[in-house]
Amino acid sequence: MNQTTRAAIVTGASRGLGRAIALRLAADGFAVTVNYAGNRQAAGEVVQAILDQGGRAIAVQGDVAELADMQRLFDETRAAFGRIDVVVNNAGTMPYLTIADLDLEGFDAVMRTNLRGAFIVLGLAARQVEEGGRIIALSTSVIAKAFPAYGPYIASKSGVEGLVHVLANELRGRNVTVNAVAPGPVPTELFLNGKTEQQVEQIAQLAPLQRLGTPEEIAAAVSFLAGPDGSWVNSQVIRANGGFA
Questions:
Q1: What class does CATH assign to 7-183+214-238?
Q2: Is residue 153 among the annotated active site residues?
Q3: Which residue in the list 36, 96, 150, 153 is annotated as catalytic?
Q4: 155 phi/psi in degrees, rounded to 5
Q5: In order along the chain (245 residues), what is the average pLDDT of each group of 10 residues?
Q6: Buried b vs exposed e over 31-61: b needs ≥16 C-beta within 10 Å?
């Protein structure tokens, strides 16, 4: 591996938005670490797709909510590529839980992955990214909609946005930017799970563009923040949502 190549970590990169982000960053010239929780085959397919295009990539298993796993993720990235320039925390979960049901187990599971996981990944990124590095977290545009059954998910992602703003201030003087991308509805497995075709179409019509987004459009927003044109954007939430909210 060329030790001078810029390197990026993408959590939850075996499928959906994470996969699209990993492929886009690889196309942008980054060596990419594809993190995955359990789907080794899917992660391997992402790595192979990058290699087939002449890029550089490795896959590293790990739970974002486990500090030891994430430390190993960062260590293996540095061992493979010699540096860490961009960290994208994409891994997340989105069950539908109504507040009145008081499903504490479900609530804790969402917070564990989405908020504790973000806290760990952003904290390690703050310690390890190079001068001029970029830290990017995935939030959600559904925060503005307050749909029923999205309470724990919205609460977790609101917390993620709070962490982004605070970390940007904590890294004052480091020349490291910290931002979030808040996607609107995109037809990933995470979004489609539990929805009927009619519900999906109704949601698609909410945006003025009257369609769902694509994983590639979200990846493009991440690419902007990770690239040279995003150097003056800091402590911001980019709502890539077609006007959804």
A1: alpha beta
A2: yes
A3: 153
A4: -60, -40
A5: 77 97 98 97 98 97 98 98 98 96 98 98 98 98 94 98 98 97 91 86 91 96 98 98 89
A6: bbbbbbbeeeebbebbbebbeeeebbbbbbb
